[in-house]
Design brief:
The protein has 26 helices and 25 strands. With 680 residues, the protein is an alpha/beta fold.
């Protein structure tokens, strides 16, 4: 081990100055240095992105899934489901062979109003109302900036617990993992994303989480922690754990250069492969104001040396010369995109989009293209346990009891029973329209706009198509695209039985008024009969959303982007054929004309990114493309009912479960053991 006095360039042991990244003159430059440690840091990104780092040989793998969310204890989106379902499926399939995937996650405590988690003795009750009996395993010390900006040694308690087939490592710290919100917490920030009572925001929280994971690994290697084995592979779940690659790849080298870590320990940590699992690239963990604070917290007094040598693989773009920032801002995803051994995203088509299109890959498009060309960037579709999303007898019975309705159980062997559910839903939606007391009892927090009683108007439910969309009311989901497509259809067609459209979800009142209320008003001017069958709402009630899918023939997904998408899988399992734009995972999961309908072309920011040039010139934009797909679905429904019946059965038989033969869990198994997924 080299002493600090012998180190060629190690006189600079200091944090980055506050505000170092601000001002017009801020530029990133890299000097040629003869110090072998700093040269190594400068070359790590190139080595990783070009796939030159040798993958360790494993006969069995012990992997840590590092995730700020889990579907079991704290979920806000799809990445939380992955963190629970992938390890469960992996352990089910491969525990007998000696491989294991465990989950490392924060132990959140507090109450946001929507999410509540508490620790009572050693009994942890997470925000998803699951309990775990914990065992104390260790205490590690994590240096991180405190309220005044100086480094403070925080104690992190480490617990272990089992849940299902998966073992968990929980990290407890009251300052960073409290979810009690400050009074000025933005309303959209909830769960583990709150600005908490200690003024800790989401980026700082998750940077601390990565640092705590690193310190645990460091203590395991140093034999200060026993009873927890060193991981063979780290699987970092999205930007939340984006700092982990820098800590594993940069920090041990910097510590060895400074004489505060021996070479053997530095190598043991630095050679642990990191796989970064990217969900939606639009979320990256930016924090311009706290750039210096966060980098100093992660790399302590070695931050200046690390930052000055953190050369990215591609420096032609002035925004992405340094692996730790984008332009002049701390960016938590940047580190893993530059330094992870492998990058995975949640569908093969999304992998193609983000490595080709600047509007979808953002600042990392070029880095991901390099990785794709050198075969260390992969697309693996998220799985979805079919048992959880197929029609369930118990759930349907509960729905009937809740609404006083008469929905029937059906599956892929008797999809015709679903026709009875259409009539049941028409009765339900009509009762909600005419009975305000009933409406306020069954969907009390859902705002409805001009619901109308159609029970007597719909003479033949079997020949009346029902379309639904129950996603979030956000621009991504493309409700405005769907709304204009519906207007286009009503303007150009007259139907004996007009379609029924049920559109809505949780979101802002302004967006609801701007898009969905105006849809109903516009259609009313064209055709009052068609408008009567348009139901728009704002809010979410699980029982209502479930009832909608039990009845719907079609599920609308006019998404502007959809890295993987889980909603289309849920809809297909319930026999609602998706009508979707051809983006991201929707291309990989919907077989157009066989188990759903997709647009022939797709545009991102007016750039044609899917489909033929000829069709792109003809259709010109996503609204026209989606109108065409919607027309195709309607034409098939009205004129070829047998085709719809067969497509519905195909959709319901499709199984996206992780562990089906050839399923995604096997690709992850190959990736963990061999660094590739073998089948491309």
């Amino acid at each position: 081990m080299k002493s600090a006095a012998e180190s060629e360039c190690s006189e600079v042991f200091k944090p980055l100055p506050k505000g170092f990244n601000r001002g017009r003159k801020f530029t990133v430059t890299f000097s040629v240095c003869n110090n072998p440690y700093f040269r190594e840091i400068q070359n790590i990104s190139k080595r990783q992105c070009l796939g030159k780092a040798e993958w360790p040989a494993f006969e069995k793998a012990r992997a840590w899934m590092i995730s700020a969310e889990t579907g079991t204890f704290m979920k806000w989106g799809g990445l939380g489901m992955v963190a629970s379902e992938l390890p469960e499926a992996f352990n089910k399939c491969f525990n007998a062979e000696g491989s294991e995937m465990l989950v490392v996650t924060p132990l959140y405590k507090g109450n946001t109003g929507k999410k509540k988690a508490a620790l009572d003795g050693l009994c942890y009750r997470g925000a998803e109302k699951k309990e775990a009996l914990l065992s104390s395993a260790a205490v590690v010390t994590v240096s991180f900036a405190g309220a005044r900006g100086t480094l403070v040694n925080y104690k992190v308690k480490v617990y272990t617990a089992g849940c299902g087939r998966t073992n968990y490592i929980f990290l407890e710290n009251d300052r960073f993992f409290s979810i009690n919100p400050r009074a000025d917490n933005p309303p959209a920030q909830d769960g583990c994303y709150v600005l908490n009572e200690h003024n800790v925001n989401e980026v700082e929280r998750f940077a601390f989480f990565s640092k705590a994971v690193y310190r645990l690994i460091e203590d395991i290697v140093a034999k200060k922690v026993t009873g927890i084995e060193k991981p063979d592979v780290l699987l970092a779940n999205d930007w939340h754990s984006g700092a982990i690659s820098g800590l594993v790849k940069y920090l041990p080298v910097a510590k060895a250069e400074a004489g505060i870590m021996d070479e053997m320990s530095a190598a043991a940590i630095g050679h642990i492969p990191v796989i970064h699992l990217a969900h939606h690239l639009g979320y990256q963990g930016w924090d311009y104001q706290n750039t210096a604070r966060l980098l100093n917290s992660l790399y302590e007094n070695l931050a200046t040396n690390v930052f000055k040598n953190a050369k990215a693989v591609k420096t032609a773009n002035p925004r992405t010369k340094n692996a730790l920032i984008v332009y002049d801002s701390y960016n938590q995803a940047a580190c893993n995109f530059n330094l992870a051994d492998r990058v995975v995203t949640v569908s093969k088509n999304y992998m193609e989009e983000v490595s080709k299109e600047l509007s979808m890959g953002f600042d990392f498009r070029d880095v991901l293209k390099i990785r794709k060309d050198h075969r260390n960037f992969f697309g693996i579709v998220n799985g979805y346990d079919k048992k959880l999303i197929a029609p369930l007898k118990d759930k349907i019975e509960a729905i009937n009891q809740y609404f006083g309705s008469d929905f029937k159980f059906y599956d892929e062997n008797n999809p015709g029973v679903k026709l009875q559910n259409k009539a049941a839903f028409i009765r339900l939606i009509s009762k909600i329209a005419r009975d305000k007391v009933y409406k306020n009892r069954v969907i009390p927090l859902v705002d409805t706009y001009c619901f109308e009683d159609i029970e007597k108007d719909v003479k033949n439910p079997e020949k009346t198509p029902i379309f639904c969309a129950t996603s979030r009311l956000v621009e991504q989901k493309g409700y405005d695209i769907a709304a204009q497509a519906i207007v286009n259809i009503v303007e150009n067609h007259t139907y004996r039985e007009y379609p029924i459209f049920i559109l809505g979800g949780a979101g802002s009142a302004e967006y609801f008024q701007k898009v969905l209320e105006k849809l109903k008003d516009k259609v009313r001017k064209i055709s009052p009969l068609a408008a009567k069958r348009i139901f728009v709402f704002r809010g979410y009630k699980d029982e209502f959303a479930y009832a909608v899918q039990l009845a719907a023939d079609f599920y609308m997904m006019p998404s502007r982007f959809e890295p993987c998408g889980l909603t289309q899988m849920e809809a297909m399992a319930k026999g609602a054929l998706p009508v979707a734009t051809s983006t991201g995972g929707l291309v990989d999961t919907i077989d157009d004309g066989r188990d759903g309908f997709r647009t022939e072309v797709f545009f991102s920011k007016k750039q044609h990114v899917y489909g033929s040039n000829l069709m792109a010139k003809r259709l010109k934009n996503n609204v026209n493309a989606y109108t065409q797909a919607l027309n195709k679905a309607l034409e098939t429904f009205y004129n070829r009912p047998e085709t719809i019946r067969q497509m519905t059965q195909n959709a319901m038989r499709k199984d996206f479960s992780w562990d089906v033969p050839g399923g995604s869990v096997y690709k992850y198994y190959n990736l963990l053991l061999k660094g590739c997924i073998l089948d491309g």
